[in-house]
Amino acid sequence: MLEGSCLCGDISFKVNARPEGVSVCHCRQCRRQSGHLWASAYVARSDLSISGTVKWYEASETAKRGFCPRCGSSLFWAAHAEDTMSFALGALEEPTGLRLEKHIFVADKGDYYDIADGVPQKD
């Protein structure tokens, strides 16, 4: 089981299944929301236990983003039509035992950095 929390500790969560889709998203929306990149993985919503009050932002017609209303930590992403939820890798307690599987939306990445870690990239 993995555990994580926001910066101030008001929100904590437990991941009760092996996460999938360990990735870094480079899309403009994720970069704006996080200040750089969004590193996440996902599990079925039933395998994610959240304690505390998450504030949700309807980021688009298809998805919402969850954050701590006190410290502003970006913690969750959920597509409306899916039964999974993504969580921020940076919020996890270590060791996680996870490794990046891919970079996504690299065609939208910022012009101020390069991706040079050898992990597969998807436009």
TrEMBL record:
Gene3D superfamilies: glutathione-dependent formaldehyde- activating enzyme (gfa). Residues 2-114 form the CENP-V/GFA domain. InterPro entries: CENP-V/GFA (IPR006913), Mss4-like_sf (IPR011057). Keywords: Lyase, Metal-binding, Zinc. Pfam families: GFA (PF04828). Belongs to the Gfa family. This is GFA family protein. It comes from Roseovarius ramblicola. The lineage of its organism: Bacteria, Pseudomonadati, Pseudomonadota, Alphaproteobacteria, Rhodobacterales.
